[in-house]
Write a structure and sequence with these properties.
The complex is a heterodimer. Chain A is an all-beta fold. Chain A has no helices and eleven strands. Classes of the chains: A mainly beta, B mainly beta. Chains A and B meet through strand 5, strand 9 and strand 10 of A and strand 5 and strand 6 of B.
Chain lengths: 113, 116
């Protein structure tokens, strides 16, 4: 049982390059989330999805886009990477409902030079 | 807007000592509260959660937390810390309601160091 799988685990980009982070979950969860984690700031929500074909902005959405074409996958895109986007990115998923715990992947460490 | 404060950035305890990690939240109605633990290089793992009912909740790995509405707190405790408990701990709050969609607000985290 894989749970939530994020690929890649590490990536180094140059400023202005683009890339896509993939999150896959095998728990048939309705809700999926993308967070970024920066030292001393906890986790901040970038975008989230409440079902296939739906996405919504979180707390820090600027510079990111997302897509959820399949229920099990949630993609996070950086169109033109900036050094300020250097961070650790976490994907999470949960069942429908406001009291369901979120299940997290192991993260993607992204450096923008 | 809801918010979470973890006053202690870094705590050091000796193995076998008791532990209390503080969490204060700001939210108008009854919150939904969680504690997660993150080991180095890993994702977050759920330790315990509070939704309603008994204000003392038990979690995995021998952890417990107490919800105190009057103090807007949800502190995490463990009676005897093990070296394997060294990690970063996050408190998070969510809210009820159809449009919350399970979104959480996280505290800044508390790093726990355990001395042998």
């Amino acid at each position: 049982n894989a749970g939530v799988t994020q690929t890649p685990k590490f990536r180094v980009l140059k400023t202005g390059q683009s890339m896509t982070l993939l999150c896959a979950q095998d728990m048939n969860h309705e809700y999926m989330y993308w967070y970024r984690q920066d030292p001393g700031m906890g986790l901040r929500l970038i975008h989230y999805s409440v079902g296939e074909g739906t996405t919504a902005k979180g707390e820090v959405p600027d510079g990111y886009n997302v897509s959820r074409l399949k229920k099990q996958n949630f993609l996070l895109g950086l169109e033109s990477a900036a050094p300020s986007q250097t961070s650790v990115y976490f994907c999470a998923s949960s069942y429908r409902g406001y009291n369901q715990p979120q299940h997290f992947g192991d993260g993607t460490r992204l450096s923008i030079l | 807007a809801q918010s979470v404060t973890q006053p202690d950035i870094h705590i050091t305890v000796s193995e076998g000592a008791s532990l209390e990690l503080r969490c204060n939240y700001s939210y108008g109605a009854t919150p939904y509260l969680f504690w997660y633990v993150q080991s180095p290089g890993q994702g977050l793992q759920l330790l315990l959660k509070y939704f309603s009912g008994d204000t003392l909740v038990q979690g995995i790995k021998g952890f417990e937390a107490e919800f105190k509405r009057s103090q807007s707190s949800f502190n995490l405790r463990k009676p005897s810390v093990h070296w394997s408990d060294a990690a970063e701990y996050f408190c998070a709050v969510g809210n009820a309601g159809g449009t919350s969609y399970g979104k959480l607000t996280f505290g800044q985290g508390t790093i726990l160091t355990v001395h042998p």
